[in-house]
Amino acid sequence: MDLPGKIAIMGGGSWATALAKIVLSTQDSINWYMRRPDRIEEFKQLGHNPCYLTAVKFDTNKINFYSNINQAIKDSDTLIFATPSPFLKQHLKKVKTSLKDKFIISAIKGIVPDENMLITDYFAEYYKVPTENIAVIGGPCHAEEIALERLSYITLACSDIEKVRTISPVFKNQYLKNSFCKDVTGIEYAAVLKNVYAIAAGICHGMKYGDNFQAVFISNAIEEMRNFVDAVHGLERDITDSVYLGDLLVTAYSRFSRNRTFGTMIGKGYSVKTAQLEMEMIAEGYYGTKCMREINEKYKVNMPILDAVYDILYEKKSPTTVIRQLTETFK
């Protein structure tokens, strides 16, 4: 496989739109799969995504749009998936075309619910994609800041380091830098956990805990993250690298973070259901919390923050009581 070949963006949300902007800064054209034909027509008329990052203008002559996922796959060599993790299965159920000879890049910072599987494992097990043909994108990289062309950094990971080294120029321009490594599993789990921790940070913010406490919270969260990823995937890594700690920080602190926003609403007294209804976008940490709690039943890592968020979201326990108890475990 000569990488990258023809690149397809799979998804129509804000992160997919940001990735399309990035790829078109280095490539002549892209394929772009969006589920809804009416959105594609509107996009062509307006010259921008009608629903997400609407300020980002596109030359639609450089985009081949698809509402048929199988045709998009057939016409592409590298597929960048950027759909919310809870909906990935639903999208892939329509796939009748083999993915075995495609290079898959997951830009999904989530986990497959029910199966409790990492995205890369799901592609490998259910779609027989060789692990050396699956990569992930991680790091502190909000779509909204890509839209504004603010300097950002990503990490590309693949078990075959030469493949991400080859493809890395696709994701490099004047406002985006990148690095690469082999820690696919560690980066994926860290990306799920940082969403959970961002919900907790938001709950504390909504309850009027201050910056002093948030600093202590993040210190404990990164330690909990390190303990878990070291337990499940003993690869040598530096948890202070931006793909782990940096992504946690931006997700826990940024006004663009939907997980923090979701948590803040709960901290202010919203029910989980009401907060979900008022959110315009998916807070993936809600699903990630349950998945990670169930996965950790196998590994039995001490994870008081994960347990606290689970108790609030799924056991409907009082945030005031749960967070007060959690603070007693911090140092």
Separation, N- and C-terminal Cα atoms:
50 Å
Overall pLDDT level? 96
Say what the CATH topology of the largest domain is: Rossmann fold
Our count of domains comes out at 2
H/E element order: EHEHEHEHEEEHEHEHEHHHHHHHH
CATH class of the largest domain: Alpha Beta
Number of helices: 15
Helix content: 40-55%
Adjacency order of strands in the biggest sheet: 3-2-1-4-5-8-9-10
Strand fraction equals 5-15%
Pfam families: NAD_Gly3P_dh_C (PF07479), NAD_Gly3P_dh_N (PF01210)
EC number: 1.1.1.94
Family: Belongs to the NAD-dependent glycerol-3-phosphate dehydrogenase family.
Binding site for substrate: 109, 258-259
Provide an overview of this structure.
The structure is a single chain. The chain has two domains: 5-181, 3-Layer(aba) Sandwich (Rossmann fold), CATH 3.40.50; 184-326, N-(1-d-carboxylethyl)-l-norvaline Dehydrogenase, domain 2. α13 packs across α14. The model has no long low-confidence stretch (mean pLDDT 96). It has helices spanning 14-24, 37-46, 69-74, 85-92, 119-127, 143-147, 161-167, 184-206, 211-232, 242-253, 258-267, 272-278, 284-299, 304-313, 319-327, and strands at 7-10, 30-33, 63-66, 78-81, 103-106, 111-112, 117-118, 134-138, 152-158, 176-181. The strands form two sheets. The protein has an eight-stranded mixed sheet with strand order 3-2-1-4-5-8-9-10, with helices on both faces. The protein has a two-stranded antiparallel ribbon with strand order 6-7. The termini are far apart. It has 331 residues and is an alpha/beta fold.
